[in-house]
């Protein structure tokens, strides 16, 4: 029998960027907050001395243990899904700060077109441009409405950037100047300019200089140490929740953080139609607790947000046969049809690739969103073309060898030494669409260590995914040629989704919108069905935009925080249901 605890105003499930932002905003507003995080307690100092490529890049030490909880995957509805058990194939953060601690820091806003993709595609190209099996939806919010929330998140995070010449003009400049321009970035920028494109420095969650954010948290200048993606930053130079929103929340006595607290259910009262709290296990003792609250916030990353609603029987499960139900619908993400491009080897140029930072890079957005004419193209939307200088450690740099090199022996050693710092990669971060046949539900066979069903993903590509990948690879090839690479190796266009959920870019399942028939949450991420339940994070994306997701998750979290405060003052639904049914 679970022990019932004192009621809180707000209970928050999962503390990464999303849960950390809600934590800080609710704590500042004086609410009695309990935040529950399944992982261990972490502070910035815990990441001192983590420059260990084997532990973090190869063995994914700070990612979820997939033997106790994972998800299953299949392409088609009539297949048996199998569990993903290697962290090479699925990377989900755990421990305080979640995946938001090991993210790289690449920062892009989504484009105005992407928030209204269905309406704007029909307006410019007609309804037939949208394939029949694609479930394209507007977000129920516009870029103009999102601007102030993006601005707020970028200031909290201290993003270092410069104006992208093609992007909508920003109301405020980036909080910090861009990172350094290295020789590889300069080569990319010169080549893209020669081709008539519009390069800029990727905006980065790696600080170009020391910075104090509006909450008074200090971030240090980046050392370009190159142990960044998949690592925590031991210089406190990466914008992450441990350096920003979590310490802000912890300064308030009305905020209580409990770690090793694994939430298993949202408690729901059918009579009142309200969430009443959550049930969690203290993983240190195995004891179960009920944490009652006036408002429940799910911010446990897209996968947990979906699974907890399904396990708790809240909302109607999506069924691809009838196309009814909303929970689990529009599951999507940037998998192996994104991040395709080319690898170039340079015989007479050596770059300083022993240094780098997660988001140190240059990009062009000429092939993003609807910035180019799609009339004669066999896909919708686009993405950025990026060159990133992550920096190579000893292990990863040894893999920089042209195709045909033996994987061992004298020739391998020669090539791995010769090409270690002579290989550059360019990729296309293509948009990922939602389809009627792609969704999440509970697996009928596989269970976690508590005996609860795992989440099951059913996901296959449409022609769009293969076509956009081909387009992106060709554009990357042109740029690499202009950069003067001696050997150019193009990625192969993926035939089908390969069950590799790499990179942590998972979204959908509890999508936002202005119509309760096609969205589970409104544009404050408040559930239409249960008005004191807010589901915050990438789970709200109806489609994945053509860029990395975290700034949009951060911005939406600030919007949700504003909504929660408003709800606590006024109650009721915060957004008007417009019933602009967007069914294809
Ligand atoms: C290698 C890598 C690089 C990335 N780089 C970029 C990038 O450059 N740019 C970009 O935009 N995005 C990037 N991302 C994506 C980014 O990490 C995520 O978008 C972001 O961290 C999501 O934030 P979140 O708060 O929703 O989830 P998280 O930060 O993962 O937080 C969720 C928290 O919930 C906790 N939790 C989950 N389930 C439960 C439960 N049942 N009970 C209690 N707690 C629970 C988790 O332990 C975790 O701490 C990257 C991801 C990876 C894997
Ligand atoms: S590259 Fe910069 S931000 Fe990344 S871990 Fe090193 S110092 Fe920190």
What proportion of the residues form beta strands (DSSP E)? 15-25%
- Give the overall average pLDDT: 96
Ligands, deduplicated: flavin-adenine dinucleotide, iron/sulfur cluster
**What overall form do the CA principal axes indicate?**
globular
Secondary-structure class: alpha/beta
Question: Uncertain runs with pLDDT below 50, 5 residues or more?
Answer: none
Question: How is the main sheet built?
Answer: 8 strands, mixed
Beta-strand segment tally: 24
Calculate the terminal CA-CA distance, rounded to whole Å: 47 Å
Tally of DSSP helical segments = 13
Please tell me how large the radius of gyration is.
Answer: 23 Å
Helix content: 10-25%
In short:
With 584 residues, the protein is an alpha/beta fold.
List the main descriptive attributes of the protein structure presented here:
584 residues, alpha/beta, eight-stranded mixed sheet, six-stranded antiparallel sheet, 24 strands, 23% helix, globular, binds flavin-adenine dinucleotide, binds iron/sulfur cluster
């Amino acid at each position: 029998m679970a022990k019932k605890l004192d009621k809180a105003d707000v209970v928050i499930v999962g503390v990464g960027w999303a849960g950390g932002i809600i934590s800080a905003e609710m704590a500042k507003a004086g609410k009695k907050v309990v935040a529950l995080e399944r992982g261990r307690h972490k502070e910035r100092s815990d990441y001192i001395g983590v420059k260990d490529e084997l532990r973090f890049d190869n063995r994914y030490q700070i990612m979820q243990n997939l033997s106790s909880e994972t998800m299953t995957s299949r392409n088609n509805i009539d297949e048996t899904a199998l569990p993903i058990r290697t962290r090479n194939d699925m990377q989900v953060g755990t421990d305080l700060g979640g995946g938001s601690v090991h993210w790289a820091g690449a920062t892009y806003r989504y484009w105005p077109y992407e928030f209204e993709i269905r309406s704007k595609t029909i307006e410019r190209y007609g309804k037939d441009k949208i394939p029949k099996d694609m479930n394209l939806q507007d977000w129920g919010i516009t870029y103009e409405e999102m601007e102030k929330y993006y601005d707020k998140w970028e200031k909290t995070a201290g993003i270092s950037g410069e104006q992208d010449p093609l992007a909508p003009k920003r109301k405020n400049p980036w909080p910090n100047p861009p990172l350094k321009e290295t020789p590889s970035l300069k080569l990319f920028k010169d080549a893209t300019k020669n081709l008539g494109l519009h390069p800029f420095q990727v905006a980065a969650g790696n600080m170009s200089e020391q910075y104090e954010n509006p909450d008074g948290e200090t971030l240090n200048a980046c050392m370009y140490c190159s142990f960044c993606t998949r690592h925590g930053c031991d210089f406190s130079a990466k914008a992450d929740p441990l350096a920003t929103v979590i310490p802000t929340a912890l300064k308030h006595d009305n905020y209580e953080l409990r770690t090793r607290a694994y939430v298993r259910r949202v408690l729901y009262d059918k009579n009142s139609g309200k969430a009443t709290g959550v049930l969690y296990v203290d993983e240190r003792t195995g004891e179960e607790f009920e944490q009652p609250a006036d408002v429940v916030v799910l911010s446990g990353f897209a996968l947990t947000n979906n699974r907890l609603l399904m396990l708790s029987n809240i909302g109607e499960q999506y069924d691809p046969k009838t196309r009814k139900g909303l929970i689990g619908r529009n599951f999507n993400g940037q998998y192996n049809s994104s991040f395709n491009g080319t690898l170039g080897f340079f015989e007479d140029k050596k770059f300083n690739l022993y240094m780098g930072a997660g988001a140190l890079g240059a990009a062009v957005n000429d092939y993003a969103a609807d910035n180019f004419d799609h009339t004669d193209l066999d896909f919708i939307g686009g993405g950025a073309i990026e060159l990133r200088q992550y920096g190579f450690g000893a292990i990863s740099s040894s893999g920089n060898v042209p195709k045909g090199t033996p994987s061992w022996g004298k020739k391998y050693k020669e090539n791995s030494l010769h090409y270690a710092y002579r290989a550059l990669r360019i990729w296309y971060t293509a948009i990922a669409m939602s389809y009627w046949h792609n969704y999440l539900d509970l697996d009928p066979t596989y269970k976690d260590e508590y005996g609860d069903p795992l989440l099951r993903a059913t996901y296959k590509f449409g022609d769009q995914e293969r076509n956009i990948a081909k387009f992106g690879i060709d554009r990357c090839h042109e740029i690499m040629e202009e950069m003067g690479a001696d050997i150019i190796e193009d990625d192969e266009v993926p035939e089908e989704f390969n069950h590799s959920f790499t990179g942590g870019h998972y979204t959908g399942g509890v999508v936002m919108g202005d119509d309760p028939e096609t969205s589970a949450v409104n544009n404050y991420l408040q559930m239409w069905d249960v008005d004191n339940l807010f589901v915050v994070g990438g789970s709200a994306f109806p489609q994945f935009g053509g860029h990395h997701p975290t700034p949009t998750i951060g911005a939406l979290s600030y919007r949700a925080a504003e909504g929660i405060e408003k709800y606590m003052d006024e109650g009721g639904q915060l957004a008007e249901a417009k019933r602009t049914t967007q069914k294809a």
